[in-house]
Amino acid sequence: MARFKLLLLPGDGIGPEVMGEAMRVLAWIEKRGFASFAIEEDLVGGCAYDAHGKAISEATMQKALAADAVLFGAVGGPKWDKVPYEVRPEAGLLRLRKDLGLFANIRPAICYPALADASSLKRELVEGLDIVIVRELTGGVYFGEPKTITDLGNGQKRAIDTQVYDTYEIERIARVAFELAKKRRNKVTSMEKRNVMKTGVLWHEVVSQVHQREYKDVELEHMLADAGGMQLVRAPKQFDVIVTDNLFGDMLSDVAAMLTGSLGMLPSASLGEVDAKTKKRRALYEPVHGSAPDIAGKGLANPIAMIGSLGMALRYSFGLGDVADKIEQAVATVLAAGLRTADLRGSGTKTVGTREMSDAILAELERLQ
Ligand code: NAD
After folding, report:
1. Pocket test for ligand 1, best of 137, 253, 263, 285 (most atoms within 8 A of CB)
2. Phi, psi of 312, deg, nearest 5
3. How far, in Å, CA of 308 to CA of 331, rounded?
4. Is the CB of 109 under 6 A from ligand 1?
5. 291 CA distance to ligand 1 middle (Å)
6. Could you tell me which CATH class the domain 1-106+264-369 is placed in?
7. One digit per residue, pLDDT tens: the chain, 369 residues?
8. Burial per residue of 167-188, b for 16 or more beta-carbon CB atoms within 10 angstroms, e otherwise
9. Is the shortest distance between the CB of 344 and ligand 1 below 6 Å?
10. Domains 1-106+264-369 and 130-259 alike in fold
11. Most buried among 9, 212, 231, 307, using CB within 10 Å?
12. How would you classify the pairing of strands 104-110 and 267-274?
């Protein structure tokens, strides 16, 4: 049986609660003999700051570098709102993304039929929605230098963020999008702002070149990112794979999140380059949502985004796509039976807590077995 090294970083707020449920699914996978895991657990975010004075320790980074995959919960909360910028909880996640070279963030937005009425859009617009947003994750304005706030001495300050992209960064993210599209409906929509940004001009040029050179058989369309945002809420089913930069991807994927009903439903994967020798790639899997301080510790959090993130790890890191399919099927069945966590509440449904939701998913997995 294959054995994988997995590092769990539950983090803050509801992170540990939803991670606890993913661990029960991991235990089920082992019990059923699909794989075995060497699991380590460590601190990240606010809890790491409390313990070590920084959002992730060097020892934890070493464990992350040695793991086959990292499963991440969520970080942050009001307790750490005033800690210095460099050691704020999110710095732990940014460091992981940077040092593991996780340049491709993959966020599926799937609308389960049972949840079509929980979306802020009309049922007919979202029912059966199945799109993926591929967001560039290690470049662009979140990392570009200079990144400063300068006191101008006249009662004014000047803040600077810098958007930078090199050709190779655009090429590799475009390839991830085209490869994914080939396994789906064979269409990529590239979004940028070439009308006002130089990085947008280069993005458009490089994505077109990669398409011409390597992926002529995949349909490619270009869309300005603002128009793309509009189309995402007007007619989201027109898309298959959307590829975009770090900043636009951050926003557009949150818009896509609401199409599916709740942030509590959305998993994500962040992938690095494939190592030429080992054929493995570094990877981190996390729910799209944050630490939800408003419901933390109450047993109300929806565990499906976290369990779905484990599902993506099975698919992309462990070659266990069939087990990932089973998890998705179990989630769909449980939702169709009317079970809902508080974030998804609707008429004619039964509201359950975190534990009951994953109890039901595990029972369904057992039944499928
Ligand atoms: P959030 O995602 O934590 O919460 C937004 C809303 O969605 C809240 O009402 C919350 O209760 C609800 N929600 C989120 N996940 C849910 C789940 N699984 N089940 C049920 N309801 C859920 O975003 P926020 O409130 O803007 O941020 C809270 C904290 O999280 C901040 O400190 C922020 O910096 C941090 N944050 C962290 C990450 C991350 O760790 N990747 C991402 C976003 C925000």
Report:
1. 263
2. -65, -35
3. 9
4. no
5. 5
6. alpha beta
7. 789 999 999 999 999 999 999 999 999 999 999 999 999 999 999 999 999 999 999 999 999 999 999 999 999 999 999 999 999 999 999 999 989 999 999 999 999 888 888 788 999 999 989 999 999 999 999 989 999 999 999 999 999 999 999 999 999 999 999 999 998 999 999 999 999 999 999 999 999 999 999 999 999 999 999 999 999 999 999 999 999 999 999 999 888 888 887 788 989 999 998 888 888 899 999 998 999 999 999 999 999 999 999 999 999 899 999 999 999 999 999 999 999 999 887 778 899 999 999 999 999 999 998
8. eebbeebbebbbebbeeeeebb
9. no
10. yes
11. 9
12. antiparallel
22 token code pair? 């993913």
Q: Report which ligand 1 atom has the smallest distance to the Cα of 301.
A: 19
On the 0-12 / 13-18 / 19+ scale of CB atoms within 10 A, 197 is middle
Burial (0-12, 13-18, 19+ Cβ within 10 Å), 200: buried
Q: Can you state the angle between helices 321-336 and 354-368, rounded to 10 degrees?
A: 120
The answer to whether 283 touches 271, Cβ cutoff 8 Å, is: yes
- Which pTM value belongs to this model? 0.90
Instruction: Name the CATH superfamily housing domain 130-259.
Output: Isopropylmalate Dehydrogenase (3.40.718.10)
Ligand 1 mean position, distance from CA 100 (Å): 24
